[in-house]
Specification:
Layout: H1 2-17, E1 28-33, E2 39-45, E3 48-49, E4 55-58, E5 61-74, E6 83-97, E7 102-110, E8 113-119, E9 125-128, E10 130-135
Parallel strand pairs: 1-7
Antiparallel strand pairs: 1-4, 2-3, 2-5, 5-6, 6-10, 7-8, 8-9
Length: 137
């Protein structure tokens, strides 16, 4: 029973370690960034689930991006309680993604919720993320 679980775990870890695909110059590329203690992963592009949560690669034009942001908060309202893992879904809508351009979504915690922004290569804020929901899920 242990061997199948070990094999499945190793296969899942190897997917995380695989290199990113080459950038297509006809597409826009969106990186995701948060602090090292948190996790920000691409989830949906225009309502469709993605296979690789490390980035978005998309056609020029308007798109809706949804990312999952996980972070820890102190649980139970007490400083002595164990931390609780929270997940927030962040939605970014932007109308002018350009081919060959690189963008970046950044997220950070805001108490028990989150904040996020879409930046261009010059660090200009292009859009602010909307928090769709947060919770322990």
């Amino acid at each position: 029973m242990r061997y199948p679980l070990l094999i499945i775990s190793l296969l899942m870890l190897s997917a995380c370690a695989s290199p990113l695909p080459p950038r297509d110059p006809g597409m826009a590329w969106v990186d995701l960034y948060t602090t090292a203690s948190d996790l920000l992963m691409a989830d949906k592009l225009d309502g469709k689930r993605l296979n690789d949560g490390r980035y978005f690669q998309l056609t020029p034009g308007a798109h809706e991006l949804v990312a999952r942001f996980q972070f820890e908060v102190q649980g139970g309202g007490s400083m002595m309680a164990e931390p609780v893992q929270r997940t927030c879904e962040l939605r970014v809508r932007y109308d002018d993604f350009a081919a060959g351009q690189r963008y970046r979504i950044e997220a950070r915690t805001l108490a028990t919720s989150a904040q996020g922004w879409l930046y261009d290569e010059q660090r200009n804020v292009l859009a602010r993320a909307k928090v769709l929901r947060c919770g322990v899920f």
